[in-house]
Amino acid sequence: MSTHEPTRTNDARTHEVADPILEIRDAEVVFEMDRGVSRVLDNVSIDIERGEVLGIVGESGSGKSMLASAMLDAVVDPGILSGEITFHPPDGEPVDVLAQDQEGIRELRWEDISMVFQGAMSSFNPTMKVGGHFEETLKAHEYDVEAGMERARELLADLYLEPDRVLDSFAHELSGGMQQRALIALSLVLEPDVLVMDEPTAALDLLMQRSILALLEELKAKYDLTLVFITHDLPLIAELADRLAVMYAFELVEVADSDSILSRAVHPYTRSLLNATPNLDAPLSEMRPIEGSAPDPVNVPEGCSYHPRCPLADEECVSQDPGFRPTHTEDHLAACFHWEEASEAIPFNIEREVNDE
Ligand SMILES: Nc1ncnc2c1ncn2[C@@H]1O[C@H](COP(=O)(O)OP(=O)(O)OP(=O)(O)O)[C@@H](O)[C@H]1O
Q: Which residue numbers delimit the ABC transporter domain (predicted)?
């Protein structure tokens, strides 16, 4: 059995934004396994603001993909998702995502909230031309195919691809970067309001990753999108994201504006994650991998789940969950009893500008 019960204090006020497009409350995913209950999303609550770029970051296996799947009620069987997920369309009544029937969720998934997964190659059927994927998606959702293909061409051109050539190619005839851009165009063809991307650029080289991020910024402005970008690469996404949510051991541990996280992160895990990330300004000798390993979801430590790896941990951290709390500002939230001591105990390995709002 898991020794860890969901204990995070979820004071709703700490998660509210002025105009939420998605409200996630107490989202939890469990898998009942032979060796115990595997809680791979642990009571996560966060609002996503209409029009923002939210970056969700954390080590591999921290639960980022589970959170993304939860937003679309797309957790794989036999995972059990609970909590409340509310989508607020630009006009119309709020939608209770977890109460939708199959038809409702199918519509919601492409037409309101669309998702791009890692690995474009495996998302395209190798026996169908790229254009066929667009047509199939439009038909399946009963969209006007002619108008939809016009939009497809425009989206492909927005992504600096030659529309006719790409539509008439098989995915394997395109480079990795071209495939990834074609997949982004496909995910936007039904005019969703929210685009969720799970490590969409992980397989690409750094230059291509950066140019795709720049393109996303242009698309976001042109099509009024809200973007949720999931990655393990904190500095990369910090350039694009307005706000960052840091995950550790299947929970959120810190949420704040990107600048605030980069310049004065207060959770010991976030500070160590920043110091562990390769950076052009820091000599390799200054890179500090985080000691210890991430917990097994069947056996998450009691109290603050980061305590076995944390230099600031004391008795309180071992026995009590710190709960989310405002720190420097009302909007810079962290789950740590010792956030005020973190900057001294875990100094950054490079100069990071402090941005006092
Ligand atoms: N089908 C499944 N059955 C049981 N456990 C699963 C299943 N899929 C994922 N998990 C577990 O859920 C936890 C969270 O996985 P998740 O994929 O959300 O992490 P992540 O942060 O997205 O990692 P990565 O960056 O490697 O994709 C992991 O411990 C993983 O082993």
A: 24-274
**Which secondary structure element, helix H or strand E, spans residue 165, and what is its range?**
helix 163-167
pLDDT of residue 340: 96
Tell whether the torsion through CA atoms of 78, 84, 89 and 95 is positive or negative: positive
- Comparing CA positions, the residue from 274, 275, 269, 254 lying closest to residue 329 is 254
Domains annotated for the chain, with CATH where assigned, are: 1-90+195-357 (3.40.50.300)
Ligand 1 atom nearest residue 76's Cα? 1
Ligand 1 pocket check for 295: Cβ under 6 Å? no
Backbone angles phi, psi at 3, to 5 degrees: -85, -5
pLDDT for 145 beyond 50: yes
Calpha distance 194→269 (Å, rounded): 29
- Indicate whether residue 249 lines ligand 1 (CB < 6 A): no
- Is the ipTM value over 0.90, yes or no? yes
Higher pLDDT: 268 or 202? It is: 268
250-264 confidence digits (pLDDT tens): 999 999 999 999 999
Residue 336 near residue 330 (C-beta atoms within 8 A): no
What are the strands of the beta sheet with 36-49, ordered from one edge? 36-49, 20-33, 80-87, 95-96
Pairing of strands 113-116, 194-198: parallel
